[in-house]
Amino acid sequence: MRGEVSEATEQSLGTVLAVQANFYRVQLDSEIEEIRKQCVAEHSEREESHCCVVRVPQVIARASVQKLANGVFPCTDSSVEVPSSVKTAVEMSSSHLPILLCTRRTRLKKIGQQVMVGDRVVVEEPDWAGGRGAIAEVLPRKSELDRPAIANVNQILLVFAVADPPLEPYQLSRFLVKAQSTDIDVILCLNKSDLIAKEQQVEIHEQLEHWGYQPIFISVNKSINIDQVARKLKDKITVIAGPSGVGKSSLINTLIPNANLRVGEVSGKLARGRHTTRHVELFELPSGGLLADTPGFNQPDLDCVPEELASYFPEARQRLAVDSCRFSDCLHRDEPECIVRGDWERYEHYLDFLEEVIKRQIQLNQQADPESTVKVKTKGKGKTQYEPKLESKKYRRSSRRTQLQELQQLYQDEES
Ligand SMILES: Nc1nc2c(ncn2[C@@H]2O[C@H](COP(=O)(O)OP(=O)(O)O)[C@@H](O)[C@H]2O)c(=O)[nH]1
Ligand SMILES: [Mg+2]
Ligand SMILES: [Zn+2]
Fold first, then answer.
1. How many CA atoms lie within 13 A of 156 on its CB side?
2. What residues contact residue 112 under an 8 Å CB cut-off, 6+ apart?
3. What sign for the dihedral angle of Cα 161, 164, 170, 171?
4. CB of 245 sitting under 6 A from ligand 1
5. What digits encode the pLDDT tens for the residues 295-322?
6. Is the CB–ligand 1 distance for residue 248 below 6 Å?
7. Residue 84 C-alpha to ligand 1 middle, in angstroms?
8. How much is the average pLDDT of 248-267?
9. Which of 84, 135, 380, 413 is the most buried (most CB within 10 A)?
10. Measured in angstroms, how far is the CA atom of residue 355 from the centroid of ligand 3?
11. How far apart are CA 146 and CA 239, in angstroms?
12. DSSP 8-state code for residue 10
């Protein structure tokens, strides 16, 4: 993406790593050397020792510390007030890319433009000295996941264990279907391969090949095939998913030594709690690329429409690619001349999941009656969505709080 950065207007492109209060941690695309030069130019009249207090995360690649040591690099003497809950240190990522703590331009707030983790953004007026910047624009998203809320994810790394906890085909199937329904590429990793015999591994491999997948057998403990996984993650945004206890945190800690995730922690219950905000963060892989954890969900909800379910099974997709059922809206149960129904291993899973998504749709339809608070909205590709109904504006009196907020906004706009 280098070259897109316009020097004249002092704009840089970057990726949002985390959202904390009203601040966004943005990793810039440009490398340290380019920015260092700029920093030297800006601060040449000042004493090096006064100008720059190099503050880097405790664990950082040695090479980049040395690079920083002989240069003039970020100092932290900015006058911008930052809440103490927000990290203020100017950070350098392990991949040598600078990170700025950014605010969102008022213009973006006005047009209701949200900034998500994973968003590609234009950062204006970077203040290299203070490590701050302002997000002026959000580039169009290539994809958008909602749980976790991350934009532009390239792939899902699905992690299961071959033992401890035992590999449950039905649960694996559910995660695979859920992942496939996002339209994002899926990589399947089977951890703890140190716990089973080679013959057992071959057996599982064959089974999953029939499902249409090529699993990578790994062991975090014995460092088996970790390099292979690392290569697949290079320069991509990856979300890691899977049930708890399979070794996701262990894997992230191995791939990113400064992530320091707690191993053996059951985060499922807390993360599902109503009032706990789910903290989403992209961790930087030392050789480039970003990785996010999804704190425990063991039973992902299947929320697709019944007609689409079959397309999330490679086995069914294969059949549908070469032939078609008699009815175009076939749900592949007991319809005549159905080419999907058959003796493939996961057909039973398909039927179970189908029942589940049909039940869910009936529930939604019932809610969609005139008395209810949701309305049906038809989207592109014939998709049906249900959205909360809003009362028409003219009958709604704005609350005092809203009035106050509008006033405050007015003042802020005046100031900026
Ligand atoms: N035998 C074995 N145990 C592992 C391996 N990787 C992780 N574990 C153990 O599995 C347990 C759960 O790991 P954790 O990373 O917390 O799993 P998470 O819930 O998916 O994040 C811990 O006790 C780890 O030490 C492995 O490759 N082999
Ligand atoms: Mg974990
Ligand atoms: Zn059919």
1. 25
2. none
3. negative
4. yes
5. 756 678 898 999 999 999 999 999 999 9
6. yes
7. 34
8. 81
9. 135
10. 15
11. 12
12. T
Q: How far apart are CA 127 and CA 145, in angstroms?
A: 31
Stated as kind and residue range, the H or E segment containing 268 is: helix 268-272
Both tokens of 148, joined, read: 């976790």
E-assigned strand segments in 93-178: 98-104, 120-127, 132-138, 144-146, 149-151, 155-161
Tell me the residue ranges of DSSP E strands in 256-299: 282-284, 290-293
Residues within 5 Å of ion ligand 3 by Cβ?
Answer: 325, 330, 332, 338, 340
- Look up the CATH architecture of domain 11-140: Beta Barrel (2.40)
Residue 254 beta carbon below 6 angstroms from any ligand 1 atom: no
- Side chain identity, residue 370: P
In terms of Cα–Cα distance, which of 190, 158, 189 is closest to 174? 158
Task: Residues 145-293: name the CATH superfamily.
Answer: P-loop containing nucleotide triphosphate hydrolases (3.40.50.300)
Reported as a pLDDT band with limits 50, 70 and 90, residue 375 is low
Architecture label for domain 313-367: Orthogonal Bundle (1.10)
SS3 59: coil
